[in-house]
Amino acid sequence: MTPAMYPESVITQMTNQNEVALGKHVHPRTRAECLELDHADPLAWVRDEFDLPDGVIYLAGNSLGALPRIVSDNLHGLIQSEWADGLVRSWNTAGWIDAPRRVGDKLSGVLGARPGEVMVADSTSVNLFKVLIGLLRLRSDRRIVLTEEGNFPTDLYIAQGVVDLLGGNREVHAVPRAEIPGSLDCNVAVLMLTHVDYATAEMYDMQALTQAAHEKGTLALWDLSHSAGAVPVDLTACEVDTAIGCGYKYLNGGPGAPAYVFLAERWWGEVQSPIWGWMGHAKPFDFDPMYRPDAGSGGFIAGTPHMLSMAGLEAALDLWTRIDRDQVWRKSRALSELMIRRIEERCDAWGVSVASPKDATRRGSHLAVQHQQAYPIMRALIDRGVIGDYRPPDVMRFALTPLYTSFANVWDAVEHLAEILESRSFEAPEYSQKLKVT
Ligand SMILES: *Cc1c(COP(=O)(O)O)cnc(C)c1O
C-alpha cells in the first residue's frame, strides 16, 4: 500500500509528531477510516512481531500480554543450546547469573530508572512483601501503611500480613482514593499505591503524591503492574523511593514471568530485604557463612533466577528497545478515545457505561465498561473471539495495548458488543456459570 492511497488528511494526522494529533483530532467515523488509520500507523509493524491467533481480537493484554514471536525463538534456543548443551556452564557462558540485573537494566528504560536500580525476581506479591518490610523497618518509629481501599487484593493482603508479622501496633490504613492526600501525616511510614487502578484504569499523579508523602517524611511504594509498558513512567523524575510490578502484563513476558523491584539508589544499603537469600549476598560464590547483602538493589534477589521465564521476559523487553514509546502512549489514547466514543454511540441504550476516567491524562491503557450482566456479556464476547475479562461486581475490562491492537479491532469489538446486547445472546444459561479464572 502506498501513502497515495489514503486521504491526505489522515496521513498528515498520523505523521504529525504532536501528541494532540493522534490523541485528540483523529476521530474515525467509519470502519473504513479505522482501516486507513491502521495503514498509516507507525506501530503497525509491531503487530507482526506477535503470534496471535487468526480471528481473535485480543483485549486482555493487561492480564496476560500476547506472545512475541522472538520469545518462542529465544526459548527454543535457550532450552537447546544453553540448557541441553551448555548445562551448568551456562551460568557463566550464557550469563544466567547476571540475568536479574541485566533484565532489570533493560526494563529501566521503560520505568525511567537508573542502571542497577531495577532487579527482576520473584513475583509481584513476594517483592511487595520484601520491600514493604524493608521500608517499615526504616521508619520503625511510625505505625501506618497508608493505601487505597480499592487497591488490588494481593497488595492489601500482603500489607495486612506484613503488619501482622511485624506487630508493634502497626496498621494498614485503607481509605477511599479521594482521602489519600488528606490522610498523609507524620504517623504514616509508607504510602503504598497502585499507579493505574486494576479495575477502573484511573491513574494517580505519581509525582505529586510522592512529593506530598516526602513532605511528611513518608516513603513511597508504587505498584506499576498496570503502568509499565502502558503509560509513561519516570521513577527518577518523580523521586520515587521504591516500586514493584509484573512482567506478564503489558511487558509480555509470558504467564508467571518474573516481576521486578525498583530501589532508588539513595536507599541502597538502607532499605534491606528481609529474605536473606544467597543470591542477595554480595558474593554468593564465596559461600560465606555470614550474610552480607549486595551493596545495591541486588539484596532483593533472594534465590536462583527462574531462567526459563526470565528468558521470556528478556526477549519481550528487547522488543521494547525497538519501539518508540511516545508513539505507544499516543496510540493508546487514540484507541481508548475511539472505544469510549463508539461505546457511547452504539451501546448507550442497553445500560452500558464507561467507568474509566474520560480525561486521558488520568487513565491507563485499559477501559472499564460497566453493565449489570458484565460476566455473561464477557463470556459471549469471548465466544465470538473478542477476549477481555471480568472483574466483580459489574466490570468488563478491555485492554487497548497499542503494540498489537488496531483501530479496526476496536471498531469491531464494539460492534460485537452491540450485537450481543441487542440480540440478548448473553442470556444463554452457560454464560452465567463462573469459571475459576474470570
Ligand atoms: C496483576 C497484579 C498483581 C499480581 O501479583 P502476582 O504476585 O504476580 O500474582 C499485583 N498487584 C497489582 C496491582 C496487579 O495488577
What would your notes on this structure say?
- The chain is an alpha/beta fold and 438 residues long.
- The chain is built from 15 helices and 15 strands.
- The strands form four sheets. A seven-stranded mixed beta sheet has the order 4-10-9-8-7-5-6, sandwiched between helices.
- The chain is globular and about 70 Å long.
- The chain binds pyridoxal-5'-phosphate.
- Pyridoxal-5'-phosphate (PLP) is lined by residues 123-125, 152, 154-155, 194, 198, 223, 225-226, 246, 259.
What is the global morphology?
globular
Amount of beta strand: 5-15%
Q: Radius of gyration over alpha carbons?
A: 23 Å
Task: List unreliable stretches of 5+ residues.
Answer: 1-25
Q: Strand pairing plus helix content: what structural class?
A: alpha/beta
Average the pLDDT over all residues and give the rounded result.
93
What is the total tally of β strands? Answer: 15
Strands across the major sheet, in which order? Answer: 4-10-9-8-7-5-6
Largest sheet: 7 strands, mixed
Q: How helix-rich are the residues, as a percent range?
A: 25-40%
